Amino acid sequence: MNSNLLKYKDSKFGVFLKKHKKYAPLLFFIAGFTWDSLTLGRIDRLYDNVILCTYITLLTVSIYFYNLVDNEKWKNKFVQRYGKYLPLAIQFFLGGLSSAYVIYFSRSVSISKTASFFLILIFLLIANELFKKRISNKYLQFCAYFFVNFTFLSFFVPVILKEMNTTIFIISGILSLASTLLLIVLVYRSSASTRIEIVKWKMLGMILAIYVLINTFYYFRLIPPVPLALDKGLVAHSVLKQKDTYVVTYEVDNWYVFWRDHKINFNRNRNQPVYIFTSVFAPTDLKKKIYHVWKWYNPETKEWITLDKIGFEIVGGRDRGYRGYSYKNNVIDGQWKVEVITEESLVLGVVDFNINTFKSKLKPQIVTREF
């Protein structure tokens, strides 16, 4: 890629970018992340879908024309005159998409099960700032594009079709693979520099490797099941349904434990049932069966033992999620967790707690809330 493309026009904006060329991509990256954080809300909201579709479309267009600006066909034309800004555009749209994924996936992620995929998103988000130094690397361009494209379609297609299962995920992967290969073919045919810089089979191998990697993550249930998200998960003393309201009584922790609603040490009277209350967000009209899987940790064998699996169907559309609960009467003291999973065993979240038969003379901090 011609080094002249890294120089900017002598407009006020261009002079500013030229003066701060070292930090300009970082500023655009931060701008994309900040904008998404302030504006994105529900994954099925029209505004969110329009924004994300615009990002992926403009990213596609930016990468396409960025690889053509040194073509004689575009000499002294609009694309070549303003092609100097395309690296910043790619930086902004990659930052916008990756930050959107971090925002959405963080609402669904279970640290114990899907942290590895979530960390890849975090890495992509941070590494994007370093992308400016290797923007001309076509292998990096198309690999990053395929990853964000696959991730986008993995939750956009279920939102559109109002259905979520393994078949839908496979369809999303095939669509992203086909669209990425189409973009590469168009660039390859139109750009002489691309034909010189990349080896076709090497490029295809890298794209297929990413495709296999993402599918492997899905097979081993390491991808958060976006667009579903666990909005609330509580271990409670009682759950009562009154008309359209759930009245939940549970014990809260000290004020400085701000990252968890319930107290992890669950103190109960003997023979008292234990309740798990959850609310799961799903896109409008999407129906899905989820399960509460109750597990107890056996300190002797040092293994988690599944003691119960209670399922119920959720219906999407409610802002704060579809509410439901399960409970057990015959429980023993020790370390417990309830995994909230889909039919495909994808983990929405985990409610961890320790059961202690009540012995303390201290009065627990009990609250009752309506959901």
Descriptive overview:
By secondary structure, the chain is α+β, with helices and mostly antiparallel strands. Helices cover 44% and strands 24% of the residues. It folds into 2 domains: 3-219, no CATH class; 229-370, Macroglobulin (MG2) domain (Immunoglobulin-like, Sandwich), CATH 2.60.40.1930. The chain has helices at 12-19, 24-39, 46-66, 78-81, 86-106, 111-127, 138-161, 166-190, 192-197, 200-219, and strands spanning 229-236, 238-242, 245-251, 265-268, 274-281, 287-298, 303-315, 322-328, 334-342, 347-357, 366-370. The strands form 3 sheets. Strands 4-10-9-6-7 form a 5-stranded mixed beta sheet, with helices on one face. A hairpin with a 4-residue loop joins strand 6 and strand 7 (303-315). The radius of gyration is 25 Å and the shape is elongated. Pfam families: DUF2914 (PF11141). Residues 288-355 form the DUF2914 domain.
